[in-house]
């Protein structure tokens, strides 16, 4: 029971995912990103193996649609899975297995795609995409958080969400942002609070990796 939005920022080349669910620790299982390659979500009776496999397929040159199609072929139980992908060119694709036991849907937009299961109504993914596309003046990562809020405002899941995650890749082999709320009431609010704390420090932690001698001794 999860809903998410995957997106690419054409201006920066960032890939990102905003995701929330009623299950614990969604950030450990469902969202996958790789700089310069794309992003994948694996949801509904989640097979965590499909995340890294999807990124490898994208990196090999397959399109988003080809990647999703191949994941369906390779999955042991594709009828239970929900998958989405975006490739380096911003092409998107999604798949909702016919035997997903809860209300589910997906919606593809420009440089973004949303999927959900355990939904209150099938409009949730469309509303998430609509927000993301309309908020073009909002910074990319803030738009991912806003898409989660839009999904909740549209009805979200049929029960309360308890976990949320924000995962973004840009230029480097590690995620630029990997923030998680693993099990809390109103996790989307706590995730935004985490981002507000982390945003001013993002470049500092990149510098720690690439140019540690530039960091003053007074900084940790």
UniProtKB/TrEMBL annotation:
Keywords: Hydrolase. Pfam families: DUF1028. InterPro entries: DUF1028, Ntn_hydrolases_N. Gene3D superfamilies: Glutamine Phosphoribosylpyrophosphate, subunit 1, domain 1. GO terms for molecular function: hydrolase activity. This is Putative Ntn-hydrolase superfamily protein. It comes from Chelatococcus asaccharovorans.
């Amino acid at each position: 029971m999860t809903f998410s939005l995957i997106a690419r920022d054409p201006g920066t080349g960032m890939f990102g995912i905003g995701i929330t669910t009623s299950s614990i620790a969604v950030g450990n299982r469902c969202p996958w990103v790789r700089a310069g390659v794309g992003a994948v979500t694996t949801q509904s009776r989640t097979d965590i193996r499909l995340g890294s496999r999807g990124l490898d397929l994208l990196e090999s040159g397959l399109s988003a649609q080809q990647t999703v199609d191949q994941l369906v072929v390779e999955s042991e139980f594709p009828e239970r899975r929900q998958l989405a992908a975006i490739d380096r060119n911003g092409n998107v694709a999604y798949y909702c297995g016919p035997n997903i036991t809860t209300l589910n849907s997906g919606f593809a937009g420009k440089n973004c795609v949303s999927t959900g299961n355990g939904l209150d109504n099938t409009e949730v993914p469309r509303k998430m995409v609509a927000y993301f596309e309309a908020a073009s003046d909002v910074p990319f990562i803030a738009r991912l958080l806003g898409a989660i809020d839009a999904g909740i405002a549209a009805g979200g899941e049929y029960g309360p969400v308890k976990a949320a995650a924000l995962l973004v890749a840009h230029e480097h082999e590690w995620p630029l942002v990997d923030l998680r709320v693993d099990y809390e009431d109103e996790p989307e609010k706590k995730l935004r609070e985490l981002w507000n704390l982390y945003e001013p420090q993002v470049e500092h932690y990149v510098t720690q990796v690439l140019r540690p001698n530039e960091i003053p001794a007074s900084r940790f």
